[in-house]
Amino acid sequence: MVTKSRLSKLTPMNKQQLAAFEAEWRPRINQYLDQQLQACSDRPTLAASMRYSVLAGGKRLRPLLTLAVLDVFGVTITPAHLRASTAVELMHTYSLIHDDLPAMDNDRLRRGEPTNHVKFGEDVAILAGDALQPLTFEWIADSGLPATMIAQQTLALAQATGPKGMVAGQVADVLGAGRHLALPALQQLHREKTGALIHYAVQAGLIQAEVPTAIQDPLLAYADAYGLAFQIYDDIWMSPVPLKNLVRRRTRMRMSI
Q1: Fewest CB within a 10 Å sphere: which of 56, 66, 97, 249?
Q2: Domain range enclosing 200
Q3: How many CB atoms sit inside 10 A of residue 47's CB?
Q4: What is the pLDDT of residues 71-102, one digit of tens each?
Q5: Overall number of domains in the chain
Q6: Which of 201, 197, 198, 167 is nearest to 86 (CA)?
Q7: Which CATH number covers residue 84?
Q8: Quick check: is 138 in a domain?
Q9: How far apart are CA 238 and CA 222, in angstroms?
């Protein structure tokens, strides 16, 4: 159990340590996803569609955040931690598949490759996303973590991705397309659509590290600020509009990489 006195003595990772942590754990996350999705479905087309998007690259930011929290708190990362922490990448991928659909952002490329619905058709893409969402919870449930941790992490993920989290942000994005949004409304959209899952990633690490709820607030505030900054950076990076004009123009927000 982490106490306030122990929390005050924690040493955050510096830039070099963080780079070394990423270099060690991103390949492990990729390898784990590849191995565990080998037989994700008895339907070959569905399995291929699920694997196509999950293994299409990406920073693996969310599972890395969870694992980094464990590392900072001195928790030895076990296979159970890895499974429960990597599950978030399935949920993230489901959101990207659905975000790219013609009824949403209608994107035909993601990370330089055809989007899932372009490759497999809208019907299979929708179903691949539908399959990845419950698989996320399956990985958490059968991870081998203590039952209390599983329950807490499952609740946190459901809240982060449901009607008051990621889905709410997607609704705001769709309904706000082509309209000017005031800064508070735009920030709230980002907190829900992108930030909620980043908040969850840090929260999952805190749950697994058994950090008491009463002393989680500063770290979750960091997660919220990081999520907002990440989305702002992503919008600037992806926008064809010159930086000086970005404050004058509102286009549909893109889901983070």
Answers
A1: 249
A2: 4-248
A3: 17
A4: 999 999 999 999 999 999 999 999 999 999 99
A5: 1
A6: 201
A7: 1.10.600.10
A8: yes
A9: 24
